[in-house]
Amino acid sequence: MTEEVDGGLPAFSDSEGTGVAHRVLGDTLPVLEVQLKSGQSVISQGGELSWMSPTVVMTTQTAGAGGSGFVGVLKRAVAGGTIFMSQYTASADNSTVAFATKLPGRIMPIHVDAENEYMVSRHGYLASTDGVTLNIGFQQKLGVGVFSGNGFILQRIAGAGTAWIELSGEIVTYELGAGESILVHPGHVGLFEAKVNLDIQMVKGIKNMFFGAEALFLAKLTGPGKVHLQTMTLPGLAHALQPYIPEGGNSGGAGGLGGLGNLAKSFNLG
Questions:
Q1: How many structural domains comprise the chain?
Q2: CA angle, 202 then 103 then 46, to 5°
Q3: Is 224 found in the same domain as 154?
Q4: Are residues 71 and 46 in the same domain?
Q5: Among 57, 123, 157, 183, which one has the highest count of C-beta atoms within 10 angstroms of its own C-beta?
Q6: How far is CA 85 from CA 43, 46, 89, 113, 174, in A?
Q7: What was the pLDDT predicted at 100?
């Protein structure tokens, strides 16, 4: 089988030195392809698979990414993850499994160990090697109008291995020095090193129709550490599409536009 993508096909590489090679194909809506040797595995949340080799065996269970038992599964679900995790194990060398992004954006690999743990936006985790864990890292209510009242939730990525993160839009990276801070709209917080301090601040007196709230909440990130911001937010995308979505639910055919309308309304934007 010969694969082709616009602009040529990059080679698989293991830049993190974990023994699992990968490559990212495409720019606007990229896809991660992981190449596995016989017996190697990667894990993703349920429903993330795009395609795989016939020599890859998929198993789905509640355990995985450090979550097992009722409490572990509950913690993962609260963090924005799925109840079920899927494990993909190769039965032969040069087996591949692929995971595509859900929004235009970027895929970035991160090396995870005891000295390198991360906080990621609730929908940022795409896949990982066996030893990586995924748990709730931060949750704070920000008012009914913000994130549909669900609050600001981050997942903590720990353990040991490689994780692949999907961030929406472009990625803007800042290296914060000790005591250096940046104020960020919570939706633009993509990924940052766990050693970076996070504090939620309310800017009073700002009436923001986008949120439908009387105050604007900002995430204060204080170094030392690296911060990766994403330029696209899901509420922002829904808000931009709202003027083009017909009223009346499923008008527009196949329920597609109606579904987008419901998405916008779920963020109090419609």
A1: 2
A2: 95
A3: yes
A4: yes
A5: 157
A6: 7, 5, 13, 21, 32
A7: 96
Q: Is the dihedral of CA 107, 121, 76, 226 positive or negative?
A: positive
The verdict on residue 1 lying in a domain is no
The answer to whether 58 touches 52, Cβ cutoff 8 Å, is yes
pTM flag (> 0.85): no
261 and 242 housed in the same domain: yes
Apex CA 134: angle with CA 129 and CA 136, to 5°?
Answer: 170
Are 235 and 187 in contact by the 8 Å Cβ rule? The answer is yes
Report the distance separating Cα 105 and Cα 169, nearest Å.
Answer: 4
Q: Tell whether 220 and 244 lie within a shared domain.
A: no
Beta bridge partners of 17: none
Claim to verify: residue 191 and residue 241 sit in the same structural domain: no
* One domain, residues 155 and 62: yes
The pLDDT tens digits for 76-114 are 555 555 568 899 999 999 999 999 999 999 999 999 999
Q: Which residues pair with 125 in a beta bridge?
A: 165
pLDDT at 137: 79
8 in a domain, yes or no? no
Residues facing residue 47 across a β-bridge: none
Q: What value, to the nearest 5°, has the Cα angle with vertex 260 and ends 259 and 265? A: 100
Domain with 260, as residue range(s), is 233-270
Q: Report residues of the chain scoring pLDDT below 50.
A: 143-149, 209, 214-215, 251-257, 261, 263-270
Q: Which residue has the tokens 């970035």?
A: 108
